[in-house]
Protein backbone atom coordinates (compact mmCIF):
# COMPACT_ATOMS: atom_id res chain seq x y z
CA UNK A 1 0.00 0.00 0.00
CA UNK A 2 2.84 2.39 0.74
CA UNK A 3 4.22 1.63 -2.71
CA UNK A 4 0.87 2.53 -4.28
CA UNK A 5 0.78 5.73 -2.24
CA UNK A 6 4.25 6.71 -3.45
CA UNK A 7 3.25 6.03 -7.03
CA UNK A 8 0.13 8.18 -6.55
CA UNK A 9 2.26 11.02 -5.21
CA UNK A 10 4.60 10.78 -8.17
CA UNK A 11 1.99 10.53 -10.90
CA UNK A 12 -0.96 12.63 -9.70
CA UNK A 13 0.13 15.33 -7.26
CA UNK A 14 2.86 17.09 -9.18
CA UNK A 15 4.36 19.99 -7.17
CA UNK A 16 2.24 19.08 -4.13
CA UNK A 17 3.91 15.67 -3.89
CA UNK A 18 6.60 16.64 -1.33
CA UNK A 19 3.95 18.19 0.95
CA UNK A 20 1.78 15.06 0.74
CA UNK A 21 4.81 12.94 1.56
CA UNK A 22 5.57 15.04 4.65
CA UNK A 23 1.97 14.91 5.89
CA UNK A 24 1.85 11.13 5.42
CA UNK A 25 4.29 10.76 8.30
CA UNK A 26 1.68 11.95 10.81
CA UNK A 27 -0.80 9.03 10.75
CA UNK A 28 1.97 6.44 10.28
CA UNK A 29 3.91 7.71 13.29
CA UNK A 30 0.81 7.94 15.49
CA UNK A 31 -0.03 4.28 14.86
CA UNK A 32 3.65 3.33 15.28
CA UNK A 33 4.26 2.14 11.71
CA UNK A 34 7.93 2.39 10.64
CA UNK A 35 8.21 5.19 8.09
CA UNK A 36 11.61 4.30 6.65
CA UNK A 37 9.93 3.36 3.36
CA UNK A 38 8.61 6.91 3.09
CA UNK A 39 12.08 8.28 3.75
CA UNK A 40 13.59 6.14 1.02
CA UNK A 41 10.67 7.08 -1.20
CA UNK A 42 11.40 10.77 -0.72
CA UNK A 43 14.86 10.32 -2.18
CA UNK A 44 13.59 8.05 -4.94
CA UNK A 45 10.81 10.41 -6.03
CA UNK A 46 12.27 13.87 -5.49
CA UNK A 47 16.03 13.53 -5.22
CA UNK A 48 18.32 14.68 -2.44
CA UNK A 49 17.47 18.34 -1.79
CA UNK A 50 13.66 18.22 -2.06
CA UNK A 51 13.36 14.69 -0.71
CA UNK A 52 15.50 15.50 2.31
CA UNK A 53 13.45 18.59 3.20
CA UNK A 54 10.15 16.73 2.80
CA UNK A 55 11.28 13.71 4.81
CA UNK A 56 12.93 15.76 7.54
CA UNK A 57 9.84 17.93 7.95
CA UNK A 58 7.52 14.93 7.82
CA UNK A 59 9.43 12.91 10.43
CA UNK A 60 9.38 15.90 12.79
CA UNK A 61 5.65 16.48 12.25
CA UNK A 62 4.89 12.81 12.87
CA UNK A 63 6.99 12.69 16.04
CA UNK A 64 5.35 15.88 17.30
CA UNK A 65 1.84 14.56 16.64
CA UNK A 66 2.58 11.40 18.64
CA UNK A 67 4.15 13.51 21.40
CA UNK A 68 1.08 15.75 21.70
CA UNK A 69 -1.24 12.75 21.69
CA UNK A 70 0.75 11.12 24.47
CA UNK A 71 0.83 14.34 26.50
CA UNK A 72 -2.95 14.84 26.31
CA UNK A 73 -5.52 12.08 25.90
CA UNK A 74 -2.98 9.26 26.04
CA UNK A 75 -1.03 10.45 29.07
CA UNK A 76 -2.37 7.98 31.63
CA UNK A 77 -1.86 5.05 29.25
CA UNK A 78 1.71 6.05 28.39
CA UNK A 79 2.58 6.62 32.06
CA UNK A 80 1.36 3.13 32.90
CA UNK A 81 3.72 1.63 30.29
CA UNK A 82 6.91 3.32 31.50
CA UNK A 83 7.60 0.57 34.04
CA UNK A 84 8.12 -1.82 31.14
CA UNK A 85 11.07 0.27 29.90
CA UNK A 86 13.70 0.33 32.68
CA UNK A 87 16.21 2.10 30.40
CA UNK A 88 13.89 5.06 30.27
CA UNK A 89 13.98 5.68 34.03
CA UNK A 90 17.45 7.24 33.91
CA UNK A 91 16.48 9.11 30.74
CA UNK A 92 13.47 10.64 32.43
CA UNK A 93 15.57 11.95 35.31
CA UNK A 94 18.23 13.33 32.95
CA UNK A 95 15.61 15.17 30.88
CA UNK A 96 14.57 17.08 33.98
CA UNK A 97 17.98 18.77 33.89
CA UNK A 98 18.92 18.82 30.20
CA UNK A 99 15.82 18.23 28.12
CA UNK A 100 17.06 19.46 24.75
CA UNK A 101 20.44 17.72 24.99
CA UNK A 102 19.02 14.34 26.03
CA UNK A 103 16.29 14.31 23.38
CA UNK A 104 18.85 15.27 20.72
CA UNK A 105 21.15 12.42 21.74
CA UNK A 106 18.27 9.95 21.92
CA UNK A 107 17.36 10.73 18.32
CA UNK A 108 20.93 10.03 17.20
CA UNK A 109 21.36 6.96 19.43
CA UNK A 110 18.13 4.92 19.26
CA UNK A 111 18.29 3.02 22.57
CA UNK A 112 14.51 2.69 22.23
CA UNK A 113 12.32 2.30 19.12
CA UNK A 114 11.60 5.66 17.45
CA UNK A 115 7.81 5.41 17.61
CA UNK A 116 7.76 4.28 21.25
CA UNK A 117 10.23 7.00 22.21
CA UNK A 118 7.83 9.67 20.91
CA UNK A 119 5.20 8.57 23.42
CA UNK A 120 7.56 7.98 26.33
CA UNK A 121 9.07 11.45 25.95
CA UNK A 122 5.58 12.96 26.04
CA UNK A 123 5.25 12.31 29.78
CA UNK A 124 8.59 13.89 30.68
CA UNK A 125 9.13 17.58 31.58
CA UNK A 126 10.69 18.43 28.20
CA UNK A 127 9.10 21.47 26.57
CA UNK A 128 7.40 21.14 23.20
CA UNK A 129 9.73 23.59 21.44
CA UNK A 130 12.84 21.83 22.75
CA UNK A 131 11.40 18.46 21.76
CA UNK A 132 10.63 19.55 18.20
CA UNK A 133 14.00 21.22 17.59
CA UNK A 134 16.00 18.38 19.14
CA UNK A 135 13.98 15.79 17.20
CA UNK A 136 14.48 17.63 13.90
CA UNK A 137 18.23 18.07 14.37
CA UNK A 138 18.82 14.62 15.84
CA UNK A 139 17.11 12.79 12.98
CA UNK A 140 18.91 14.71 10.24
CA UNK A 141 21.88 12.31 9.83
CA UNK A 142 19.85 9.12 9.37
CA UNK A 143 17.28 10.97 7.25
CA UNK A 144 20.03 12.23 4.95
CA UNK A 145 21.49 8.75 4.55
CA UNK A 146 18.13 7.14 3.76
CA UNK A 147 17.23 9.86 1.27
CA UNK A 148 20.63 9.48 -0.38
CA UNK A 149 20.13 5.73 -0.64
CA UNK A 150 16.70 6.35 -2.16
CA UNK A 151 18.24 8.69 -4.70
CA UNK A 152 20.85 6.07 -5.55
CA UNK A 153 18.15 3.43 -5.98
CA UNK A 154 16.46 5.76 -8.46
CA UNK A 155 19.69 6.02 -10.46
CA UNK A 156 20.10 2.25 -10.39
CA UNK A 157 16.50 1.78 -11.51
CA UNK A 158 17.04 4.14 -14.42
CA UNK A 159 20.12 2.19 -15.42
CA UNK A 160 18.29 -1.15 -15.15
CA UNK A 161 15.49 0.09 -17.39
CA UNK A 162 17.96 1.51 -19.86
CA UNK A 163 16.75 5.09 -19.42
CA UNK A 164 20.27 6.43 -19.21
CA UNK A 165 23.80 5.17 -18.99
CA UNK A 166 26.22 5.83 -16.16
CA UNK A 167 29.95 6.14 -16.50
CA UNK A 168 32.40 4.21 -14.35
CA UNK A 169 33.19 7.44 -12.52
CA UNK A 170 29.51 7.87 -11.66
CA UNK A 171 29.34 4.31 -10.35
CA UNK A 172 32.38 4.87 -8.17
CA UNK A 173 30.96 8.17 -6.94
CA UNK A 174 27.62 6.58 -5.95
CA UNK A 175 29.26 3.71 -4.09
CA UNK A 176 31.73 6.07 -2.41
CA UNK A 177 28.86 8.32 -1.34
CA UNK A 178 26.97 5.45 0.28
CA UNK A 179 30.10 4.18 2.04
CA UNK A 180 30.96 7.66 3.28
CA UNK A 181 27.42 8.22 4.55
CA UNK A 182 27.48 4.95 6.49
CA UNK A 183 30.88 5.77 8.01
CA UNK A 184 29.66 9.22 9.06
CA UNK A 185 26.57 7.73 10.68
CA UNK A 186 28.73 5.26 12.62
CA UNK A 187 31.06 8.02 13.83
CA UNK A 188 28.22 10.36 14.79
CA UNK A 189 26.42 7.55 16.60
CA UNK A 190 29.51 6.61 18.60
CA UNK A 191 30.15 10.18 19.69
CA UNK A 192 26.49 10.67 20.60
CA UNK A 193 26.38 7.37 22.52
CA UNK A 194 29.41 8.38 24.55
CA UNK A 195 27.79 11.72 25.40
CA UNK A 196 24.47 10.06 26.23
CA UNK A 197 26.10 7.47 28.51
CA UNK A 198 27.96 10.25 30.31
CA UNK A 199 24.81 12.34 30.75
CA UNK A 200 22.83 9.38 32.09
CA UNK A 201 25.66 8.37 34.44
CA UNK A 202 25.63 11.85 35.95
CA UNK A 203 22.02 11.32 36.94
CA UNK A 204 22.40 7.71 38.12
CA UNK A 205 22.99 8.80 41.71
CA UNK A 206 19.73 10.77 41.79
CA UNK A 207 17.84 7.81 40.42
CA UNK A 208 19.33 5.38 42.96
CA UNK A 209 18.62 7.78 45.83
CA UNK A 210 15.04 8.07 44.68
CA UNK A 211 14.63 4.30 44.68
CA UNK A 212 16.05 4.07 48.21
CA UNK A 213 13.45 6.50 49.49
CA UNK A 214 10.60 5.05 47.48
CA UNK A 215 9.83 1.55 46.30
CA UNK A 216 8.45 2.94 43.03
CA UNK A 217 10.70 4.26 40.30
CA UNK A 218 11.47 7.96 40.58
CA UNK A 219 10.17 9.57 37.41
CA UNK A 220 9.63 13.33 37.15
CA UNK A 221 6.11 13.08 35.78
CA UNK A 222 3.76 15.74 37.08
CA UNK A 223 0.35 14.22 37.77
CA UNK A 224 -2.40 15.74 39.91
CA UNK A 225 -3.33 13.81 43.07
CA UNK A 226 -6.57 11.84 42.93
CA UNK A 227 -9.74 13.71 43.97
CA UNK A 228 -10.25 11.51 47.04
CA UNK A 229 -6.81 12.44 48.33
CA UNK A 230 -7.51 16.14 47.89
CA UNK A 231 -10.77 15.76 49.79
CA UNK A 232 -9.11 13.92 52.67
CA UNK A 233 -6.28 16.45 52.95
CA UNK A 234 -8.73 19.35 53.04
CA UNK A 235 -10.29 17.93 56.22
CA UNK A 236 -7.03 17.76 58.19
CA UNK A 237 -6.81 20.40 60.96
CA UNK A 238 -3.40 20.93 62.57
CA UNK A 239 -3.44 21.90 66.27
CA UNK A 240 -0.31 23.34 67.78
CA UNK A 241 0.05 22.07 71.41
CA UNK A 242 1.72 25.33 72.43
CA UNK A 243 -1.57 27.22 71.89
CA UNK A 244 -3.55 25.05 74.33
From TrEMBL:
Top-level taxonomic group: Eukaryota
Residue ranges occupied by any VTT domain in the UniProt entry: 33-151
Main location: membrane
Coiled-coil regions, chain positions: none
Membrane disposition: Multi-pass membrane protein
UniProt-listed InterPro entries: TMEM64 (IPR015414), VTT_dom (IPR032816)
Membrane-spanning parts: 20-38, 45-69, 102-121, 133-151, 171-192
GO CC, one annotated term: plasma membrane
Keyword Cell wall biogenesis/degradation recorded: no
Keyword field: Cell membrane, Membrane, Transmembrane, Transmembrane helix
Compartmental location: Cell membrane
Name of the protein this chain belongs to: VTT domain-containing protein
Amino acid sequence: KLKDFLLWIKEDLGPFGPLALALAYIPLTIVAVPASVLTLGGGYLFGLPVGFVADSLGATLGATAAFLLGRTIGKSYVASKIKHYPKFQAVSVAIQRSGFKIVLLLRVVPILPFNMLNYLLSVTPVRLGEYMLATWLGMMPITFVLVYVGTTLKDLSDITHGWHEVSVFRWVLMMFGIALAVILIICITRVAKSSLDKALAENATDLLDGKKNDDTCMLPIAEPPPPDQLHEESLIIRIDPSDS
